[in-house]
Amino acid sequence: MAALFALGCGIDSAGSVPKPTLAPTSVPPTFVRITVTPKPTETPTPRPEPTATIDPQSINRGPPEFPDWLDPNLTDERPKDEVIFEGWTKYLENTAIVRGGDDIPTHFCSNGVIMQGDGVHDALENWRIYRSPAIGSYDWGTVNVRVDIYSGRWEGNSWNMLTLVRNVGKVFFTNNLNPGELRIERSERCLSRL
Prior knowledge:
This protein has 194 residues and is α+β, with helices and mostly antiparallel strands. It has a domain at 60-193. It has three helices and ten strands.
């Protein structure tokens, strides 16, 4: 049996075939180099104050009056959504909104400009009326005031700053821990920019 085994293992002279060279069965490791470059903290660059371009004859300088045709308590015919949003926009344009007695007014000026304190808001811009999930076919008196955030932690996002509800002849905000009636006045600060 030993002789048979020796022939089985084979030698070149015994007519055996050389062993083929096989490709490696494992893949050599590959590495991806990632370089992390520290980025300095950026201070927001001051934006130029936007200026509104509006026809002077279309400027409403009187106290804001909510249109009767838009009030769900006064009319049975529901306007289309676009008409509702346009009506709310015209109502809030160039107004100062105060949430409470000691609150700093937020000014909603033409062309989406938001002012607070002594100038243009330092983080918010482009206010607009936006659809609220609470708007319905029978009660269309609820809308959102949506704004864009252009600096700070939430930069690049939109935010529903106010959810407004028109009820019993008054405007209330409801997306707050202390919902209540809003005081809406014509904004001299917005009008002075026109």
